Input
Amino acid sequence: MFRYSCYPNGVNEVYDSAWAFAVMDSFVFCAIFLFFDFDAGTRMCALSFHVGCTAAFLDPDTEDIYSEGIRNMDISAGDIGPFVGAIIGYILALLIIGPAIQGNIKSGLAHAQEMAIKLAWHEGQLWTGIVKYFRGSDQTIEVDYLVQQAFLAQERTAQLNANLGNSWWECFDSGRTGLIRGHLLELHERMSYMNDWLRGLGVAMQSEDFGAEHDALMSKVSASMLRLNSCTADLLYHSCCLAIGGYSPELDSYQLDEDVKAPKAFKEAFEQGRKEVYKSDMLAEDSIEEHFVAFALSSYADYVEMLAEDVLSGSKVKRVSIMQSTIDGIKSIPCLNPDHGYMVRCFVAFFGSAFIGYVGVPGLMKPYSAGVASTAAILISSSGGTGSAIVSNMNRFLGIAGGSVLGSVLHALAVPCTPWAPLSGFVMAFIYLGISFFTKFKPPNYGFIGMLSAIFALKQLFKPCGQDESIGRAEFESLQTQMLAIFVSTAADVFIGNQSAGHLACHSYKELLHTVLESSRDAFDPKKPIDADRRAFRGKLVGQYAQAELIGHEATIEPRIYRLPWNGSFYDKLVEQSYQDTVNSGLLRFAIVEVERNPKLKPLLEAMTSSPAAKAIIHEIYARGTLSVALAVAVMKKDSMSALRAPLKVCKALTAEMPKPLDLDLNAAMLDILAEVNGGIAKSKLSSAKASEDGYCLAGTLGLLKFLLLFSFLKFSSCCFYSGCFAANRRAAM
Output
């Protein structure tokens, strides 16, 4: 509108003042959206619509009409139709989700409510199963089932978070629905912590020997353990029911009082049982797993108690208002993308397509065509996303071509020149839309095909009867335009400064493991302060793991025209193995923070780090893990024939630097550490009301997690050296 307000007739002659103004205006507008950090959907729509208006403005022979400003809007103008259509679409979408404000529709929030209540019930049942199994006297295959159920609980929690992420637009965090969403977000966070302990319990149960001392201790604490678990499971389910209802009855606190009493009774029974079974009030080597389970169960009760207090007290939940969301979005816009290659790639792909459309291609498209650039605006991939971009572009073309062809065929069959043609056409369009949108929302790999197929098929189905030619010239030109845009965008993705997805995957994996290793080293270094923000640390680990997993999938489909195939199976194996390391690292940070928060437990932490065996174990974990990560990255980065021997060279160098296995026996090391720890606990003289604050349980948790990390990195280094050194030596011998 601004351009037409200055030049109502557009460009009359090439290179006149209107032409220069339009070119400069278009360049500045598009460059802003390409270089700055706008949302992907905003960038696509802005560039696509802008290039269409620019092409019409530059064409001296155009017959399109555009408004000359907001005060002089023409209802028949080419810019009013899409604008009004968008407004109508938004209104219809809001009308559909409007009842979600009262929680009465199958929206994202409704799915989250259903998922939350199921998750709370399954979580309680899973903890009950773990407690009953650990009370037993023998290790059975049931432990594998419980570990698998813990993994499924984690997936359900992730699905709850996905549903909640989609529900902000339904309520804007306001009213009763906003309160429900806030409580469910708090539930999700607590559930995430619980799931970490579940994964840790799986490893502890698999390592427990179920000896005579275990049976004797469990017989003394069984009743209190079951009561604590039962009270906690009931309180979790009750709190979840209140949370999804969006209200907070302050008088309904009987269940909370019962849950507060149960941890104290369990701690007293556990302490008394330890004294009677082991004949002393000390942490024994055979009781480490039992103390870890006691600490985990008590922490589970703490999480549920905090959740119940938040819900029952009616405390304010965190909300993001429309104003705050708008401010945050505006603040993020001025940030330039740090990947300069990505900006250059976007620039070349979009403006190259715009230039092709401006000059035209004889026999393919007329000059001043905006189709290529409009399509290229939605085909620009993300940084490092070459592989998925090519696959997505091919899927888009399949959707366009398939929709055009099927739409023409269905139009010929279902829209004859008969009185019932409107009815049959409507029924056919309804059926086709249902199938297309099922394809869009259900199978994630075919979302583009379903959406574009619906759009281009409707263009054919909405034609009047009699126009039943299979594919007319306009449709064929549209297919050619789409293919040309795909070619230009794909060429820019592949050849212009795009970072290799394989190298990005290696970098993401390296960052993840270094975070785990450095946190394990710093946790037992008295000279380095510990960050008490456990939420931020866990979020960092989860984000790095998700990034490593995502970019690894991207690496499997990136075009490696002149490089060797990506070693995807080896990478997936390493990433899968590293997940338990991230969980153990997060639990270790949790226990360390508990020690840091209580000054009386300082002697315990000093004892954990003062023994030579403890120092040797920490050094072993960090040194072996760091060098093994370097070898794994070298193995995965072999991109060319000349790099095939690189892992062998790296392997030889790392073998010389790799620390020798611990000189002392691990059992002797454990006894040494326990002697120091028991002395530190005796110095602390701390009396606690529950197991999650007990020095012995904290020491058992720290000791078990330390040894689990050691065994994991020993296994990791063996896997890396086998995959790197053995394979490299075999290739060298061939």
Notes: Residues 695-733 form the longest helix (39 residues). Residues 556 and 569 are 10 Å apart (CA to CA).
